[in-house]
Structures are given as structure tokens and as C-alpha cells.
Amino acid sequence: MLKLPAGRSMGHGSVGSGQTYTRSQYDTIASMQLSNGLRYAKLPGVEGNSLDFLEGITPDCIGQIGFGYTAGYILKLDYTQRRLTCYKQTAARRASQDFLRGEHVVAVLDIETRRRPGNVVARVNIGGYSFLCGFDTGQQGQLYLPKAVRQALLAKKLLVPLPVYDADSLCTIRQVDFGRGVKLDLHALNVASTRNAAMDKALGYTEEPNLLTVGYAFLSQFTTIWDSEANKMYLCAPR
Residue 103 in 3-state DSSP? Predict the structure, then answer.
């Protein structure tokens, strides 16, 4: 844990999975260096959050870079290479699409944002049922649906429980239709009938009865390029 001088209290916030945390603001952080050598000095107005609940998940994490750091950029996320590349959004780049150079584009998805600019969602279909799909880089994947829909997908063999689990636990989700001809099987996702009300409210997921959040099970299959300004996500074959 990183110990900082007492900051100014800014109340409380919540993460996507529902936990709350204390928000504080610090006048200046003297310096910060990323693993690639990029260094920042005298960072003003930095927010510090007490995220003790992350210690059991990733004890080496002492801070998070928020969406403000990447605002105005096209993001290329490569899980297999463990690399994030940021391309400044400009008119010239929009015309040249140089961020796609060297990539084999498999599909282009239509995306939108909700309450928060970094919260990207899409519309998908599973077995004739519409789902809101959120993208969460911090999880394997979750499927939330009413019991009647769950039973219908089980009957169609589109929801396949893993051998040692029941239908309320880990399953393979087959033929998830992302549109534009993209249908994927997502493996080892948690399936539940009960939603997290705090998460739904925080992220603006309150209107849709069926919710899919995709994480590693989806993102590890592609290099994904996120262009939230153009409302597009490019799926590229991994290198």
C-alpha cells in the first residue's frame, strides 16, 4: 500500500462490481514513472482512492490511471502481448486509419457509452434474446439473466454448464451474436439470475433485463481497438 499525506476529502465513489471507496484529492504528486520509462513530474490535482478490497485480487496494485489519461485517444489493447497503445485522435488519423496498419481486422462492432465516458457497451443477441453487453477488462465475464431466459438457453444448448458446476456457476455461452456476422463462444463465464443493483446504477445498466459483461474470455481472442469517438470497436486477429 502506498502511504500519502492526508488529502482533501471528496466523499465516496463506487467501482463497477459495487464496492464503495473513500475519495481524496492531493495537490501534487512529485513524479510517476511507467514501466516503459515514460515519466511524469508534478502531477496536479490527483485523486487518491482507498481500494483496500483489491488487495486480495492484485496486491501489487497501488494506483489506477483513469479514463482522463486516455481521453482523446484511440486505444489498442493486446492481451497476448500485454500491451496498450494510445493513438491521438486527429483528422489526419481518422482519414489514414494508421492505427489499423499491420492488423488483420476480423470485424467492426458498433459501440456506445453510458453514464461514464470510459464505460463502453454494445448490443448482442443470444438465442433470440437481446442483451446489453459491457466490456470489463478486470474480469473473466459474467452473464445476468432471468430464470426463464436461462432455462430457454439451456434447452437450446446455448448455455452449457461446465461438468463440475451447475447452471448458476461457470458455463460456456455459445453463439453470442455481436452483429456484422460476428458469433463467438465465450468460455468459463459466471452465470447468475441476481443482478448487482449498485453496479447497475453506477454504470447505467438499469433498463435492460438481460446483461452480459465480457472480459478476458472475449478480449483474449483478439487485439481490440477502441475508438469511442467514432463508436467503433475493431476486432483484429491476435499476432
Answer: coil
